[in-house]
Amino acid sequence: MLKVLVMVSGGGTNLQAIIDSVENGTVTNTKIVGVISNNQNAYALKRADKHGIAAECVSPKNFENRAAFNEKLLERVNSYEPDLIVLAGFLVVIPPEMIAAYRNRMINIHPSLIPAFCGTGYYGLKVHEAALARGVKVVGATVHFVDEGTDTGPILLQKAVEVENGDTPEILQRRVMEQAEWKILPQAIDLIANGRVEVKDGKTVIQ
User: Fold this and answer.
1) Considering only Cβ atoms within 10 Å of each terminal Cβ, which end of the chain, N or C, has fewer?
2) DSSP 98-141
3) What is the pLDDT of residues 158-201, one digit of tens each?
4) What's the domain range around 112?
5) What's the pLDDT tens digit per position in 63-120?
6) Which residues, 6 or more positions from 35, have their beta carbon under 8 angstroms from its beta carbon?
């Protein structure tokens, strides 16, 4: 049974997609053991509570410096003894110590087809604003393993989504969520839970 810890900063729509997929059997051999947010007002915490999942807030605002926060965050993460950490819209820089401790055991969902519109400064609506400003015809989402860079870890899954006439950043964001993010994030977890993913030479191999 894969023990999954989900980390999220906001509403938690991707968290909900994971919860639903575990509960309806789309994702197998998996248990969500906890949810951590850096935002005490995140609706994601309420989503977790509704489904009987342990949830807590660990916020940088509550610590005198980032080093103290990083230490506490890793301590709380370790307390869940997760097999896999899922960053589902977690807008905090992951401490290097945590990346090292969970090498190839931490994945992130990014709302673009990496390497397009990714890296520092590209998050949330900013990704979709940039895509529309560039005039691209196809966007999408990527699930990747987390390394020391920003959106640079080995890619696990990607799914394309067409841009339509009249799209606003908000409309495009919603379509990417519905057609890509909410599908490939649970799918990635299921692949990992069933031993079908391996990282070799910085690339993923799916069996």
Assistant:
1) C
2) HHHHTTTSEEEEESS-TTTT-STT--THHHHHHHHHHT-SEEEE
3) 999 999 999 999 999 999 999 999 999 999 999 999 999 999 99
4) 2-206
5) 999 999 999 999 999 999 999 999 999 999 999 999 999 999 999 999 999 999 999 9
6) 5, 6, 7, 8, 12, 15, 44, 45, 47, 48, 53, 54, 55, 56
pLDDT for res 52: 97
CA gap 110, 159 in Å, rounded? 11
Across 25-54, b (16+ Cβ under 10 Å) vs e yields ebbeebebbbbbbbbeebbbbebbeeeebe
Tokens of 11: 């509403």
Token pair of 95 as six digits = 């401490």
**Catalytic one of 51, 110, 128, 144:** 110
Tokens 């009249």 found at: 166
What does the mean pLDDT of the chain come to? 97
CATH code of the domain covering residue 118: 3.40.50.170
Q: Residue type for 29, please? A: N
Q: pTM value?
A: 0.96
Domain count, the chain: 1
- Tell me whether residue 110 is one of the annotated catalytic residues: yes
